[in-house]
Amino acid sequence: MNRLLLFIPVVVFALMGFVFWIGLGIEDKTSLPSPLIGQPFPEFELGVVEDGRTLTTKDLKGQPALVNVWATWCPTCKAEHAFLNELAEQGVRIIGINYKDDDAKARDWLSLYGNPYEYNLADPAGKLGLELGVYGAPETFLVDSQGIIRGKHIGDLNPRVWEVFGKEFEALK
Amino acid sequence: MNAMKVCILLISLFSASAYAVIDGHKYPFEDPADAARFEQLAEDLRCPKCQNQNLADSNAPVAADLRDKVYELMQEGKNDQEVVDYLVARYGDFVRYKPPFRLDTLLLWGSPVLMLIFGIILVIGLRRQAGASPSVLTAEEQQKLNELKARLNDSETTADTTAENRNS
Questions:
Q1: C-alpha span between B13 and A144 (Å, rounded)
Q2: Beta carbons of A95 and A121 less than 8 angstroms apart
Q3: What's the whole-model pTM score?
Q4: What is the pLDDT of residues A105-163, one digit of tens each?
Q5: Residue A115, class by beta-carbon neighbours within 10 Å (0-12 exposed, 13-18 middle, 19+ buried)?
């Protein structure tokens, strides 16, 4: 019995080691779960980068869309841009939020690298970004035809991510 | 509460208004108590971009935005709970250093208690074992003991004489 008790620290250590190993391995610490999933897209009334007209939350509804938060100062946004162009060619509806950026710079970027967006909402102060819980561009939201947020991806969109994310998007149609 | 009011009054005597200064940015408050509240909130809320910095420590742009938002909400007269709720609704529980007590956080909150119970059981078990003497023998050990006793009885006479010889 005494001898068995000696093994308790080893067993406890092994159990803790296992739990930490699983916990540290699985958890992607750079992407946080969004509490907004299942919630309606936050109300907004913002100018459009391309032509300056004002749009509201109503304009988002009707068809499912990817809402992509990007900026010209964001290197990862540039990395994913080509793939967004590809998606747009495939007929995916993409709406941009130009986050804490300059309209003129954004227009230059779009004419230089192509414009996959139906329109880009100008969010120079990051107000809409804050409502969406954005903490680093690029972030992409799945919004259904009723304007409800159905999913979120943090980081760049690429073919590997799209394998899963794209299916979620198709499911909204 | 009265003592606190006196305290606040005393503080206000020395400063007509108060500033909370974070990362070189001044947040003016009319009431020094609010400045203290603001600093406490910035301490207690976690920067979503950084793994282990609070809003007060971090110089990440999103932390600055959130500090400004906390300030704005406070100017609107929101209390601490309302400010925290506002951020949690958008950024999730990650922004709180103190996680809420819910079904899915039960293990998190309960594990220290479980460890304590486990420790108490362990200590009681060890003490009982140290205290209880002699311990119960197994059948095998009992048999061995009986054999040894029998052998001792057989050689008792010789043992006695040797002992007597030694004593004399």
A1: 57
A2: yes
A3: 0.71
A4: 999 999 999 999 999 999 999 999 999 999 888 999 999 999 999 999 988 999 998 99
A5: buried
- Give yes or no for a cis peptide into B134 (omega within 30° of 0): yes
Q: Which long-range contacts (CB under 8 A, 24 or more apart) does B84-90 make?
A: B84/B41, B84/B44, B84/B45, B87/B45, B88/A35, B89/A35, B90/A35, B90/A36, B90/A130, B90/A131, B90/A132, B90/A133
CA distance B85 to B96: 10
Burial of A80 (0-12, 13-18, 19+ CB in 10 A): buried
Q: In this structure, are residues A162 and A153 in contact, taking their beta carbons and an 8 Å threshold?
A: no
CA angle in degrees (0–180, nearest 5) for A125-A131-A134: 75
Q: Tell me the C-alpha distance between B167 and B43, whole Å.
A: 82
Contact A5 B126 (CB under 8 A): yes
ipTM of the complex: 0.77
Contact of B96 with B46, CB cutoff 8 Å = yes
**How far does B106 lie from chain A, in Å, by closest CA?**
16
Helix (H) or strand (E) holding B6: helix B2-14
Specify which residues A148 forms β-bridges with. A40
- For residue A144, the 8-state DSSP code is -
Pick B92's closest partner by Cβ from A1, A33, A134: A33
Query: Which among B142, B143, B144, B124 has a CA at the least distance from the CA of B134?
Result: B142
Mutate to test the interface with A, among B90, B116, B118 (most CBs of A within 10 A): B90
Using CB atoms within 10 A of its CB, is residue A86 exposed (0-12), middle (13-18) or buried (19+)?
A: middle
